Amino acid sequence: MNVWQKILNSVLPPRCILCGKILNEEEGLCPECFNEINFISRPYCARCGRPFAEAPSDEKLLCPSCIKGDGMPFRMCRSSFHYDDASKNLILGLKFMDKTENAGVLARFLFQAGHDIWAAGADLLLPVPLHYTRLIKRRYNQSALLAGELEKLVLIPVDYNSVVRHKKTRPQVEFSGHERIKNVKGAFLVRHPEQIRNKKIVLIDDVMTTGSTLKECALVLQKAGAASVDALTVARVC
Fold first, then answer.
1. pLDDT at site 221
2. Domain assignment of residue 87, yes or no
3. What is the pLDDT of residue 3?
4. Region label for 198, one of left (φ > 0), alpha (ψ between -120 and 50) or beta (otherwise)
């Protein structure tokens, strides 16, 4: 930490982004809040990342859906923690309450959760885009903020422009099951396929619920010639 940062911290000390408690260092979360978060660790499905209740932690196992081959368009899916009462305010604060400072902390969690993806190789980070009307209303894309912070850690460039959300859809939270799939069908368009072709893409988003949005985005990337598509989210509904 440089001198100016120390001076700033003495005037405006870093605080826990969940409870507001003053921290000794810029860690983002106090120990109490950190311990409440249900991080996802092995054992989990080697492909979709769904946690197993019990399994040998040193083996790469597949869940029943991945064994059957459900047509999932991802090489791998990974998430940092469970989306639950302990963690949801981290996501909601970033997404709806202008707490953009959360992005840096959450990106560090993404970096850890993506270990398998970095080991397998990645060429581009690609945040799931918002429709321009929603972007104007919200003023920022939380997934783009996460990708920008993650770029600093993994030194993999972010592609903000190749994929657009050209179809205005209703919020996914209003739907469940197959209705979510129908809602995002045809929502994405690859505007610059030459930037995607033969690249290993990592899709970045805040939460995976059913995965419908991420899957639809992955499908258009595959059609554009991506070598592989992974999904990396801060949280997932398990």
1. 98
2. yes
3. 62
4. left
Residue-range definition of the domain harbouring residue 117: 74-236
Question: From the centroid of its chain, how far is CA 128?
Answer: 9
Nearest-CA neighbor of 238 among 96, 69, 45, 31?
45
Instruction: Let me know if residue 55 belongs to a domain.
Output: no
Instruction: Give the closest residue to 130 by CA, choosing from 94, 157, 168, 100.
Output: 168
Instruction: Determine the Cα–Cα distance for residues 3 and 23; give it in Å rounded to an integer.
Output: 18
Give 163's contacts (C-beta < 8 A, 6+ positions apart): 126, 129, 188, 189, 190, 191, 196, 217, 220, 221
Domain annotation covers residue 59: no
Q: What is the pLDDT of residues 57-94, one digit of tens each?
A: 667 889 988 998 877 899 999 999 999 999 999 999 99
Close Cβ partners of 43 (under 8 Å, ≥ 6 residues apart): 51, 52, 54, 55, 56, 57, 59, 61
**Strand pairing partners for 231?**
77, 203
DSSP state letters, 172-216? GGG--THHHHHHHTT-EEES-GGGTTT-EEEEEEEEESSSHHHHH
Q: Where are the beta strands (DSSP E) in the chain?
A: 77-82, 124-127, 163-165, 188-190, 200-208, 228-236
DSSP 8-state code for residue 42:
S
pLDDT in the model for residue 7 = 56
The domain spanning residue 181 has which CATH number?
Answer: 3.40.50.2020
